[in-house]
Structure formats: C-alpha cells, structure tokens
Amino acid sequence: MEHYLVRRCLKWIDEEAFIFTSYQLGGEKVVTRSMSEINFLYTARQGYIIEIGMRTTG
Fold it and tell me: What is the pLDDT of residue 10?
C-alpha cells in the first residue's frame, strides 16, 4: 500500500509541474524529463489537504 501512495503522490507532483511549466511557457507542449529534488516537509494524514507548489531555479 505504501508504494501505491508514493506513486500517487509523485503523479500529483508531476501534474503540478506540467501545469506550472505550461503556464510559464505559454501553453507549449512539455514532458517531464526529471525531478532533481522533492522535499516532504510534513506528514500527511487521511483527511488532510495537501498543497503542492513549484518554483523556478537558476
């Protein structure tokens, strides 16, 4: 079950990355090449609302 939850969380992160990048590039077609870092700051329990955010680096 734990692996299922990790995969689901990574799917949500990938979807957020797509939304963020598409907006930044004005609707260009994009694909995920890699994720260099993921920081889980807090434990999420059933019923919690999860916020996923992105920022550019460089």
Answer: 86
